[in-house]
Design a protein that fits this description.
about 170 residues; mainly alpha; 8 helices; about 5% strand
Length: about 170
């Protein structure tokens, strides 16, 4: 009896492995870590020369500043609309802002949160990466599910397979 149950469960799992992703939404399990991983990959892959000055928040790991930091990063990313990959990161930041309680606006403001430093793109990008890693470590966001086709709508922004395999995403 137990052998039949085991074989049934095993075959159901194996057969669902070969189904297209559209038919197995319960198996996709895209969490906030996945969306943050994608953003980190796109930031790391961005090597376009961007000659713009940016403002980066100074208190990246301050929980009371997290909503303000998110807003500021989004605002700064809007300065480079021609970079398709950074536009994707901007949209993902907006999505993250909606699903992470830690990024919700508090009722009172903290004056330290408005402290910013003017910087170039590589330094801005580094701060954003550090912020995303910090948010990811908080484990405080709702699951974000989207299909693979929604990841790269214009097929110009892709995480290289080498990056995905290094991070264990393949």
């Amino acid at each position: 009896m137990y052998l039949h149950l085991f074989l049934f469960l095993f075959s159901a799992g194996v057969s669902s492995y070969f189904l297209p992703l559209k038919e197995t939404p319960h198996l996709q399990n895209k969490t906030k870590s996945a969306i943050i991983d994608e953003m980190l990959c796109l930031l790391e892959a961005e090597n376009e020369s961007i000659n713009e000055q940016f403002f980066k928040p100074l208190h990246i790991k301050n929980q009371s500043c997290a909503p303000y930091n998110t807003e500021n990063f989004i605002k700064e990313l809007k300065k480079i609309p021609t970079c398709k990959c950074m536009k994707r990161v901007e949209k993902d930041m907006i999505q993250l802002e909606k699903t992470c309680p830690i990024l919700e606006k508090p009722s009172s403001s903290n004056s330290r949160c408005s402290e910013m430093a003017e910087t170039d793109f590589p330094s801005f990008k580094e701060s954003l990466e550090e912020f995303l890693k910090w948010v990811n470590g908080k484990q405080d966001c709702s699951n974000i599910v989207r299909s693979e086709s929604g990841l790269y709508p214009d097929s110009k922004c892709r995480c290289p397979d080498s990056w995905k395999s290094r991070k264990g995403l393949l």
